[in-house]
Fold:
Amino acid sequence: MPETMFAAPDARELLLPDGGLACPFHPRLWVAGVAVTPAGQHHLIVRAGSVRAYFGPTQQDVQRRAELTARALSGLFDQADREFGQQLLAWWIEQAWETLIDEVTEQILHR
Structure:
């Protein structure tokens, strides 16, 4: 069973098929799906290898966790590109979050 960071234990997970959506900038980083709590909070599920992390439920949580994750995964980049690599990974996670929120909002508005 994979280790899960920042988890919401009572959330239901909706996982994407085929393991999720791969990050084009890092071979081990994937969006795996979404988790929804009974209170209606949404979390993006991101995985890196066997470790998964929930990003959310607020924009501030996503930004902070994206920065931490990007810093942890930046070792793949050359030293000269490491800071840019961190920014790129954090940006990708935040864009995935924004897309999730846009999709959820669209579903709610068109019920």
